[in-house]
Amino acid sequence: MTSPQRYAVLVGLLGSTYRATTVAVDTLDDADFERRTRTEAWTVRQLLFHQLLDAQRALLVFATPDPGPADTHAVSYWSAWAPGGPDADAHARFVQRASDAYAGPRGLRAQWRDTSEAVLRTAAAHIGSGCLATQGHVLDVSAFMHTLAVEGAVHHLDLTLEIPSPGLPDAALDLVDEVLTGLLGEPLPSRWSRREAVLKGTGRSPLDDVDRGELGPSADRFPLFG
Question: What is the tens place of the pLDDT at every residue in 15-46?
Fold first, then answer.
């Protein structure tokens, strides 16, 4: 697969994850927006606002080209995102308070839909090569798309703990598996389903005794990113 083809595939997978989230929240009422998610600090409303912030960041990044070279890639980028990082609590509080400013789900839902679709149009119009700068790093544009799709997939699973999900394509979950396997340096247990691998690899679900026996000392490295 050529680099432009790979980029196009990643744009398509990002579209699948973003639009799955749009469908999941499209008919929720006020009470549904206060349901729990797999992120302990946030409700559906708060997590959707966090996802909106990431979509807004993506628009800024596409307007921030960098001459390169890249200093991180689609896997190593996540090594800095361990659970409980130094700014995690502050960001969680900000999201909680800022999302309270919405009078109800309609405004936040519309802003998410419009912004996420703008990201997809911008990504599709990009030439699919070169480097971009974000969060103190430089990535080639395909690696950046990979990070967006991984975050979109993980947060879609987070969001749909208590609300229905239209489902994600296996290929979107495979992107997360690429990151987890790359960070671990060895394959994940083959008996895990794609979904189970994402949830256990990112700490959303705990490892059980069988998992720990199979992983051996590597189990102490979980979760691999947050």
Answer: 999 999 999 999 999 999 999 999 989 999 99
**Digit-coded pLDDT (tens) for 93-104:** 999 999 999 988
Q: pTM, whole model, 2 decimals?
A: 0.96
Residues 81 and 221: beta-carbon distance below 8 Å: no
**By the 8 A CB rule, do 157 and 201 touch?**
no
Q: How far is CA 98 from the centre of its chain?
A: 20
- Compute how many other C-beta atoms are within 10 angstroms of the C-beta atom of residue 200: 22
User: Positive or negative CA dihedral for 7, 5, 201, 216?
Assistant: negative
